[in-house]
Amino acid sequence: MDASVAALVLGALVVVATVIGLVLQRANGRLKRASDPAAGTSEAPTANASDLDLLAEDAEPGSRATLILFSTAFCAKCPATKRMLDQLAAQTPGVVVAEVDLTHRQDLARSHDIRQTPTVLVLGESGTRVARIGGPPRRSDLEDQLLQLST
């Protein structure tokens, strides 16, 4: 293979890899509503008992919303996400945060199709899954979602 052709192929691979990386980065942390098929979610917005079962036995779901954080012991962004969720819950009446450590519950990672941490599920007052966020969530997206749940 000629050196100029090899350089051209290498340059094209770098461009393709960069574009794919930018697309994936842009999608990271985006809120996907359960009832929005355009957002790539196929979940129906119906109550899912297994989502409420994720709460610890002594935990109660929120009267307005429950935020479930899936994390692992080795997740670098999970502690900051947990602090942000706790702050939101403290500022928003009726919102509860629950954390599930997937390090010890790999069965839940499979059953809930968790492919990255942090992942946050937003459950409505009846336990209905209304949104899912893969990656560190944007605070403004969560605030907007919680505002919609109160109306």
- One letter per element, helices H and strands E, the order comes to HEHEHEHEEH
Order of strands in the sheet with the most strands? 1-5-4-2-3
Helix-strand makeup class: alpha+beta
What is the C-alpha radius of gyration, as a whole number of Å?
Answer: 19 Å
Strand content: 15-25%
Q: Please tell me what the overall shape is.
A: elongated
| CATH topology (level 3) name of the largest domain | Glutaredoxin
End-to-end separation: 64 Å
Main beta sheet, described?
5 strands, mixed
**The CATH fourth-level homologous superfamily of the largest domain:** Glutaredoxin
Corresponding CATH architecture of the largest domain: 3-Layer(aba) Sandwich
Poorly predicted tracts of residues: 36-50
Work out the number of β strands: 5
What is the C-level CATH assignment of the largest domain? Alpha Beta
Can you count the helices?
5
Mean pLDDT: 79
- Into which percent range does the helicity of residues fall? 40-55%
Count of individual domains: 2
Describe this structure in words.
The chain has 151 residues and is an alpha+beta fold. It has two domains: 1-31; 49-149, Glutaredoxin (3-Layer(aba) Sandwich). Helix content is 40%, strand content 19%. The chain has five helices and five strands, in the order αβαβαβαββα. It has helices spanning 3-27, 49-52, 78-91, 106-111, 139-150; strands spanning 31-33, 65-71, 95-101, 119-124, 129-134. A five-stranded mixed beta sheet has the order 1-5-4-2-3, with helices on one face. β4 (119-124) and β5 (129-134) form a beta hairpin. The longest helix has 25 residues, at 3-27. The N and C termini lie far apart (64 Å). The relative contact order is 0.20. Residues 36-50 have low confidence and may be disordered.
